[in-house]
Amino acid sequence: MVRQAKAQRILTHDQIWGALDRLAERAGLSPSGLAKRAGLDPTTFNKSKRVTPDGRERWPSTESIAKALAAAGSSMDTFAGLTGDDASDGHSVPLLGLALAGASGAFDESGFPSGKGWTELALPTAEDSRAFALEISGDALAPAYRDGDVILISPRAPIRRGDRVVVKTKAGEVTVATLKRRTAKALELQPLDASQAEHTMAPSDVGWIARIVWVSQ
Length: 217
What we know:
The chain has 217 residues and is an alpha+beta fold. The protein is built from four helices and nine strands.
């Protein structure tokens, strides 16, 4: 008996070029700007280069796609997602393991993701264009967060008493806690484990603080 092979998805010329356009847009660049950042000829991804003078379809090389992904700080999995017809309906945010969040260069002075080590996490929505995600490792934050959980942090979301937040000190320490009180003189945090004592730090020691707005389950 012959088994019927599963139908495999074949990407079209338009889907591949459309994914490159979306990749450039996510990076805040034009197609030519993305090509230039990738170290390619600025016209590599131009629409005029996508069809030959005699009407034949011209495809981007795997090397140029790989360089574009590296320039945009993105992954092949993300690129594959951008080839879908509904790719523009979703949103992705930078993702980094929580254990690496204290590393030098992981964030800029404003608390936004920077440097290497970041991947991407696709989300249905994310109102804050500066939002990013951290993946929990180990059981230090249990039972609130388990090993492998992903938390979404929004630097622009308003923070109120009782919100769960991520705080990074100027010394590089990263803390996940509940905000108890925030004044001009002190930042009071309650550990997620209620049996632990409250922690107070001076505002001058805080690099940045941002609210946790979503967690995977």
